[in-house]
């Protein structure tokens, strides 16, 4: 998809946790910036935050912060920063925090006011809940966001990708594209698997990120939004 055809904000989800949502989101931010867009990231809920001199900080949210231009307020980029590295529902309970949509909606509005595009990164896989009463689909609907799905290329990705795409559609959300991210360098016949995914996912293909641990996402942005 051409950057000029992109919506002003979208939600990045994945086929599982640890499949490169943050790396893909950062690469997307750089791809947009390289095309002249003001692009900022958002991580509404982040667990596993460290206590720093500036307050609680999350590694994924910090990466999005570094990839954003203009530079947003960290509190807007990451409204809910939770200390324990647990599922958000458990981390919030342990911190005595009740997650609600209102602070996220207010922070999102401030980010939208300063950027052409806001890239909002979710937690875990699509059906990972935010709280006892909030699923990620509730957040997507509240912010009126289409969804981009990151597929971690490893054994089982065909099943995980198709199930995730079906779950997104079943929730009433709109998936506008998917990204293939190479997470397993030992995966056999990876090109064939990407071909199978492209044939079976009725969604625009936004690109494929190579296996490159520790790479600068700015250097890999050329692999995304090429059409």
TrEMBL record:
SUPFAM superfamilies to which the protein is assigned, alphabetical: P-loop containing nucleoside triphosphate hydrolases
Residues the entry annotates as binding ATP: 18-23, 60, 121-124, 181-182
Pathway assignment: Cofactor biosynthesis; biotin biosynthesis; biotin from 7,8-diaminononanoate: step 1/2
GO MF terms, alphabetically ordered: dethiobiotin synthase activity
CDD domains the record matches: DTBS
Top EC class for this record: ligase
Binding site for Mg(2+): 22, 60, 121
Membrane spanning stretches: none
Pfam families hit by this protein: AAA_26
Classification via InterPro entries: DTB_synth_BioD, P-loop_NTPase
Highest taxon above the source species: Bacteria
Annotated substrate binding sites: 47
E.C. number(s) listed in UniProt: 6.3.3.3
Keywords: ATP-binding, Biotin biosynthesis, Cytoplasm, Ligase, Magnesium, Metal-binding, Nucleotide-binding
Cofactor field: Mg(2+)
Predominant subcellular localization, coarse grouping: cytoplasm
Assembly description: Homodimer.
PANTHER family attached to this UniProt entry: DETHIOBIOTIN SYNTHETASE (PTHR43210)
Function: Catalyzes a mechanistically unusual reaction, the ATP-dependent insertion of CO2 between the N7 and N8 nitrogen atoms of 7,8-diaminopelargonic acid (DAPA, also called 7,8-diammoniononanoate) to form a ureido ring.
Family the UniProt entry places it in: Belongs to the dethiobiotin synthetase family.
UniProt name for this protein: ATP-dependent dethiobiotin synthetase BioD
């Amino acid at each position: 998809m051409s950057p000029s055809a992109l919506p002003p904000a979208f939600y990045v989800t994945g086929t599982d946790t640890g499949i490169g949502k943050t790396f893909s989101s950062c690469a997307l931010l750089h791809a947009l910036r390289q095309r002249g867009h003001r692009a900022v990231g958002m991580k509404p809920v982040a667990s596993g935050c460290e206590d720093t001199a500036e307050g609680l900080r999350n590694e994924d949210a910090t990466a999005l912060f570094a990839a954003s231009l203009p530079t947003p307020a960290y509190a807007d980029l990451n409204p809910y920063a939770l200390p324990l590295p647990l599922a958000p529902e458990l981390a919030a309970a342990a911190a005595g925090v009740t997650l609600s949509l209102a602070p996220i909606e207010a922070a999102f509005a401030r980010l939208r006011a300063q950027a052409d595009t806001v890239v909002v990164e979710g937690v875990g896989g699509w059906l990972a809940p935010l709280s006892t009463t909030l699923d990620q689909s509730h957040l997507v609907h509240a912010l009126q966001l289409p969804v981009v799905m990151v597929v971690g290329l490893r054994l089982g990705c065909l099943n995980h990708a198709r199930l995730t795409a079906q779950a997104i559609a079943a929730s009433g959300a709109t998936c506008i594209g998917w990204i293939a991210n190479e997470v397993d360098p030992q995966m056999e016949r990876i090109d064939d698997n990407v071909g199978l995914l492209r044939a079976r996912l009725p969604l625009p293909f936004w690109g494929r990120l190579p296996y490159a641990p520790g790479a600068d996402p700015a250097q890999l942005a050329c692999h995304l939004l090429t059409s």
